[in-house]
Amino acid sequence: MHNTGLAQEPEKAIIVAVSTPGRHDWTVEDRLDELESLLRTAGARVEERVVQNRESPDPAYLVGRGKVDEIEELRKTLGAGLVVFDAELRPGQRRNLERHIDCKVIDRTQVILDIFAQRAHTREGKLQVELAQLTYSLTQLVGSRELSRLGGGIGTRGPGETKLEVDRRRIRQRIQGLRREIESVRRHRALGRREREKAPVAVAALAGYTNAGKSTLLNNLTGASVFVEDKLFATLDPTTRRRRLPSGQELLITDTVGFIRDLPHDLIAAFGATLEEITEADLIVHVVDGSHPAAQKQVETVERVLAGIGAGDVPVILAVNKVDLGVRISLPGDRPTVMISALSGLGFGGLLSAIDSELGGKRQVVTLVIPYSRQDLIAVMHEHGKVTSQDYGQDAITVTGEVESVWAKRLLRWASPTSAKSEDGGETTGGPKGD
Fold first, then answer.
1. CA quadruple 61, 96, 170, 120: dihedral positive or negative?
2. pLDDT for 195-246, tens place per residue?
3. Directed axis angle between helix 376-383 and helix 405-414, to 10°?
4. How far are the Cα atoms of 26, 144, 386 from residue 294, in angstroms, in the given order?
5. How far apart are CA 210 and CA 302, in angstroms?
6. Number of neighbours of residue 35 by Cβ within 10 angstroms
């Protein structure tokens, strides 16, 4: 009989990176530190790091042919069963490496997908992870060694164990089915958001680099019980909780999946329904681990991802977390910034005041055509601004007022806007938008 009570021995891994003179965003040490953290989260133990300095990556092997032989000798000496490359491998490179390295050869993207496969617990999360895995595997099919022949472990969990053995047509069919199911989830989530929007409650999304402390912040701000662990991607599924602000108004706070540098495009696309929680929020609280050696680069990475998913125009408050451990980040002067400790509660008062100020401090002039069935929207305008004129027509009321920007954005979605004018005179127009 097998003793299931014994902990599984971590896979022994060798990690490999290429250092080129043109790359200055992350040092090779930072990249390998993060890859080691990813593998530790996935359940492996890094035995050795291999770095090769090159003018450019080798098109056939990523590293040089001689370095491949060194890696195989090192693998034999250490008894490693896994070699992981920091860069994404092309199918031809993977095929060439597998001919000379007698173990699983995977890349950073597969490690991230594997972690997501382990962390996905809800139906929505599992659908999104499977879509990302299959989309990635489709690009890697040509010449790939069947993963079922390699055994289990990192890089082979989830649908990868069986799906790579079927042909492209069946994988594409499954991808189409997953996209239909995720679209259904997207519609359901959108309905839920519209229902939440009917209540006069603003929404703040917690965004940030993985392991920055977003879930700890949500738990200690709201009394939530989101799973927290000192590992990457501890949270995959968004959780929303309520908190009253110093002004008295209520706020919904949503915890979201963490970002990471070079986040696989397939993963961003697969998690589109979840990431809409960020793009549709009234405010983003960008949580950053201020004590991390690469904190500045992590901030820049998150900002790029936010812009890439269409959230670049959402107001942002930077919450520099873990300040009790020291701060290694240059504080920006172009946005509201607060110093906090999500664990101890330090700085929570300042954070809530900053949220209050951001939500209520900016106003826009809007003119709306409001159906008689939605006169409650006029009450919202009175509550969050000042109504300056009302013109009663046969089917609707044309209302002009100066409203807090957050609520102006919502009102423009709820009613049929004729125009929306900001304080500086800029004007936007929009077509009819139903509820």
1. negative
2. 666 666 788 999 999 889 998 999 999 887 765 666 566 566 678 888 999 9
3. 170
4. 8, 35, 45
5. 10
6. 23
